[in-house]
Amino acid sequence: MLSGAVIAPARRWLSSGAQNAFRIFSTAPAVHHADKAAAHGHDAHGHDVHGHDDHGHDDHHDHGHPPPIYFDREQPNPPRDYDSPKPLTEKMDLEANPAEVFLPFGKYKHLSPWQIPLAFDPSSITAPAAKVSRLSNGLRVASLKLPTPIVSVGAWIDCGSRFETEKTSGCAHFLEHMAFKGTKRRGQAQLEREVEDIGGHLNAYTSREMTVYYAKVHQNYSAQAVDILADILQNSTFNEDAIAHERHTILREMEEVNKTAEERVLDMLHMAAYPGHPLGMTILGPKHNIETIQRQDLVNYTKTFYTAPRMVISAAGNIEHEALVELAQKHFGSMPSTPPADALPINESQAIYVGGDLRDIDQENHLAHFSIAYEGVGWNHPDTFNFMVMQHILGNADSSNEYAQHSGSNLIRGSFQGQEGLDHKFYRIADNIKSFNTHYKDTGLFGVCATCPYDMTTLLSFNILKQFQFLHQGVDEHDVERGRNQLKHQLATHLDSSAHVAEELGRHLLVYGRHVPQAEMFQRIENVTVESVRNCAMRYINDRDPVVAARGDIKYVPDYQFMRRQSFSKSY
């Protein structure tokens, strides 16, 4: 019996053949909560690119750690949001008193890491600052000069599958496929030859909240790259023959995605977490839409979403900002600021997390692929960096990692050290474990994806749920420091090329409204403490409805009621 919530699952069956069945549980707690990164792309040569749109102790004895928080179990769950958070869209005070930075119980005791003023000497920041300009039509232009002869430039557009309706679902991804099929000025063959002749690379991808087109060229061809991108975005012809060809290509891509267990489980996880909302739909869209999308649908979609205020032109490399602004004005200055009167409807409704259980049974596959997650936070929420550090506290590992059994993460170490079988041999519980933290505009998903032999799923599930509880019960300074260090290392190594820097610029302007320098990112990471991690995990994990997705031979995956019970800490 759960304390504080009554689970009333509504069961629904979808038959898809003798070997497969989908089982859905939709939870509806009597005491409700106070509030409510796979990308698919392909390059100019038609090659598919997939990506999903960015490590503790088993038993813990308190030795000077902050005391646990006690809630009145008879009252509704406390609100998650802070009273007056300072979002990342607002610049922090870099001139603050350095002595006040890491006072966990002083002046900033009741503030989140996002509200604590940053304190370090700005003169110590040697990295070049990004420059941002805005054209008269609302188009934003951002650049960061780097000591490299390679320039990466692209268009980051505030449109993706979450803004689509049931009728337009799949259009964003279909458009990305049509990007390199010819324009009014360049045929498909001419476009491919031109990119090849300058030694460039042209690519595109679609995520749930943004669509990206970018080019990577030598600095001498920066102007030509901007011209090509502008031509693609504003003058694509959408030839009927090309549409028919890409229709079959996307259907084949859908088949491949459905065969890829990890991608399929993540799609199922979104379906269960956000039923009835576009965020829960796949990026590719339903098969019926792919088979019926016509040229006029694509034209209407571009007129609706490809407007100047929804777009950022971002570049990194050996390029002057003034020169980039001139190129943007020349090629994008006439782009409209508003959609036409007959524009398609844009679904900008808030995504409501529901939680639930979605399973795809396949007895022929002796591996089980499953994911357990909880609702996270949006890009601009005060707890964003807490979740980033928590992801690295849980960690990632696969069977090829020989040192996983010695990991500092309780989750990884406990899953890869092995369990003694009846034959007295040791067997690993898991083949692969990946923690993830996905942010969207108004919500997020924080959880773990795992692959293991079918007979290890019960043990592995229990271990994962135990480590979720560890985040608010047993995490200590060593765990948080390890998480902070790994996160900073990941951010630093991610910016080792002009393409990654341009991607960060474009994404930051879309989600934060400004570019956040790496020095500020590192300072915000350092502001994450044991207390802030414990409090964050208490608010979002303890006694909250999880979302579960599973595929394969999953007969031993525990049922949803078991996982919901394990989400409640029994130490209070």
Provide a descriptive summary of the structure in words:
The N terminus is likely disordered. A hairpin with a 4-residue loop joins strand 16 and strand 17. The chain is globular. It has an 8-stranded mixed sheet with strand order 1-2-11-18-12-17-16-13, with helices on both faces. An 8-stranded mixed sheet has the order 4-3-8-9-7-10-6-5, with helices on both faces. The chain starts with 9 loop residues before the first strand and ends in a 6-residue tail after the last helix. The chain has 572 residues and is of the alpha+beta class. It contains 16 helices and 18 strands.
Please sum up the structure shown.
The chain is an alpha+beta fold and 572 residues long.
Write the layout of secondary structure elements.
Layout: E1 10-15, E2 21-26, E3 39-43, E4 48-51, E5 131-134, E6 140-145, E7 150-157, H1 171-178, H2 188-197, E8 201-206, E9 211-218, H3 222-235, H4 240-259, H5 261-273, H6 287-292, H7 295-305, E10 311-317, H8 321-332, E11 356-361, E12 367-375, H9 384-394, E13 396-398, H10 410-416, E14 419-420, E15 426-427, E16 432-439, E17 444-453, H11 457-473, H12 477-494, H13 498-511, H14 518-526, H15 530-540, E18 547-552, H16 560-566
Parallel strand pairs: 6-10, 11-18
Antiparallel strand pairs: 1-2, 2-11, 3-4, 3-8, 5-6, 7-9, 7-10, 8-9, 12-17, 12-18, 13-16, 14-15, 16-17
Described by the principal axes of the CA atoms, the overall outline is: globular
Return residue spans where pLDDT drops below 50 for at least 5 consecutive residues. Answer: 1-38, 45-86, 94-116, 119-125
**Beginning-to-end CA distance, first to last residue:** 15 Å
Largest sheet: 8 strands, mixed
| Mean of residue pLDDT values | 80
The helix-and-strand class reads alpha+beta
Q: Estimate the strand proportion.
A: 15-25%
Q: What radius of gyration results from the CA coordinates?
A: 24 Å
Helix fraction bin? 25-40%
Number of strands: 18
User: How many DSSP H or I helices?
Assistant: 16
Strand order of the largest sheet: 1-2-11-18-12-17-16-13
